[in-house]
Specification:
Blueprint: E1 2-6, E2 9-17, E3 20-25, E4 32-37, E5 65-70, E6 86-89, E7 93-97, E8 106-115, E9 119-128, E10 134-144, E11 149-153, E12 170-172, E13 183-186, E14 189-193, E15 202-206, E16 212-217, E17 220-225, H1 235-238, E18 241-245, E19 250-255, E20 259-261, E21 266-277, H2 284-288, H3 290-294
Length: about 300
């Protein structure tokens, strides 16, 4: 771990291990600014006009990977993360700690550990330092760079005789239009493309018991894994993952269960990131082999 400038910020932590490179801002956040295979372009979106920005009361997108609370609320969710974060490095894990939010009394922490074999382990933590309970769910949002394709696995195909009950729920927003050609239904996947020429946003969410989604861009494939707890109550009509896109980026979002977080209590939400090199555009057959390529076990 080194402290060095990145993207307009002077104080950033640079982590490198197992063929993966990560930059994390220490001046705002918790916020991961860059994640890629060694020597490859940033897979995370960057907002050029906000590079190096700090301070102030307005919420900024910044790009990268951020940490929110759900359900989405125009005031509670959009608390700015414009101030420096405390950081601790123990030789393997970088811990980022935000000051408690003035409005909510909630403190967000993010632990980042680079693993062997091109992987990263993340642990998102919310600590209630207020004097009142909060009904919330941890929400981890990864803004992917433009031009890629997001693949969301379907549940296993079973015959009508084998499965009389539905396989999963799906949530649509008031502006969701499934006729948009950014959505493509493929064998085994729902594909959502990021289109820089798009004129409006799209969003979709679901209960994803497979516990992963992938993003393909250039010569890199990225997989984000997250829990799918069988008895949990998730926000937004039962979504443990959501996907949003506009002309600037595509967000891969994972959510934890809804909890009533009492004063002094903590809730955690893990993610596992994996990276693999690919040879540009990949076809249906290679898409179908993604779980095998990444060693993804079927969700239990």
């Amino acid at each position: 771990m080194k402290i060095q400038p990145y993207g307009g910020w002077q104080q950033c932590a640079f982590l490198e291990k197992g063929g993966v490179q990560v930059w994390v801002s220490l001046e705002v956040g918790p916020r991961i600014l860059h994640a890629s295979l060694e020597g490859e372009p940033n897979l995370l979106a960057e907002v050029a006009e906000q590079r190096g920005a700090t301070g102030g009361e307005e919420w900024r997108l910044y790009g990268g990977h951020r940490f929110w609370i759900a359900p989405e609320d125009p005031e509670l969710t959009y608390q700015p993360d414009n101030d420096p974060v405390e950081h601790q490095w123990d030789g393997s894990t970088l811990l980022l700690r935000q000051a408690p939010e003035a409005l909510t009394g909630l403190r967000k922490e993010l632990a980042i550990e680079l693993l062997e074999e091109r992987a990263v382990r993340l642990l998102h933590r919310i600590v209630n330092e207020s004097d009142r309970p909060h009904l919330l769910a941890p929400w981890a949002l990864t803004c992917m760079a433009p031009g890629g394709r997001c693949l969301i696995p379907n549940e296993p195909v079973l015959s009508h005789e084998e499965a009389l009950l539905p396989a999963r729920s799906m949530a649509l927003w008031s502006y969701t239009d499934l006729r948009d050609d950014r959505f493509r239904f493929r064998d085994g996947f729902l594909e959502l493309r990021q289109d820089p020429a798009a004129t409006g946003p799209q969003k979709i969410g679901m209960l994803n018991r497979q516990g992963w989604a992938a993003y393909l861009l250039g010569r890199q494939a990225f997989v984000k894994q997250f829990p799918a707890l069988p008895d949990a109550v998730y926000p937004d009509f039962g979504c443990n993952c959501e996907f949003f896109t506009n002309a600037e980026m595509l967000e891969m979002e994972s959510l934890g269960p809804l909890v009533e977080l009492q004063p002094g209590e903590t809730v955690e939400h893990p993610e596992h990131w994996a990276f693999r090199p690919i040879s540009g555009e990949i076809g249906e057959g290679e898409m179908a082999r993604l779980p095998e390529t990444f060693g993804l076990a079927p969700a239990s």
